[in-house]
Amino acid sequence: MQDQVIICDLDNTIFDTSSIDPELFASLLHKATDYLSGRFTAEIILSIIQDIVSNPFDRVCEKYGLPKSMILPVLDELNGISLEHSAMVPYEDYAAFRAIPAYKILVTTGFKRLQEEKLRKLHISQDFDRIIINDPVYANSSKLDIFRELSRELDLKDRKTYVVGDDPASEIKAGRELGFTTVLMVRKEYLSNPYTDYIVSSFEGLKDLLRDNII
């Protein structure tokens, strides 16, 4: 195994979830409106749908004060969405990630079927030594739990393990708690965060960070 290890997120780190055709989620919005209209405005329901598509659903429930039972019908609809005819590509700088010499682990949270379909459409599975899909419907594991298990299993070296992702409250916080080197990917606007060691805006930046042996 390579001395350096990268644990990488998928959504909004490797590809932009907003690039998925919004028409695919029309039925999801309709279902959500049926179940949530008595409690939320149309604007908030749309916000909930946008969050569900790109965030762990348990965090969405917490954010909006939703009981799990209320959101399950919406999740069932989401799980039935097909990305077969959706054009999906990684960010333009993804080639820089491919070029980084490291043992690479993809850890992503979401419906297993939907996340696997994303991987097929993006053609990136071959770039990882290991892929872990954390389906929140069937597993109660947090990213901290997953990272801790990986650390035990692979005997990860704290500062030689880089956690890369866009969510300060999820993978970045978990990596920080375990003493890993954390790299927050911020592509659209600058965001400071006390949990991260480094902030980059592209995989080119990540490649430079590791190449220059700053750590």
TrEMBL record:
Cofactor needs: Mg(2+)
Keyword Hydrolase in record: yes
Keywords carried by this UniProt record: Hydrolase, Magnesium, Metal-binding
GO terms of biological process kind: small molecule metabolic process
InterPro entries associated with the record: HAD-like_hydrolase (IPR051400), HAD-like_sf (IPR036412), HAD-SF_hydro_IA (IPR006439), HAD_sf (IPR023214)
Coiled-coil blocks: none
Name of one Pfam family that matches: Hydrolase
Gene Ontology terms for molecular function: metal ion binding; phosphatase activity
Protein's UniProt name: HAD family hydrolase
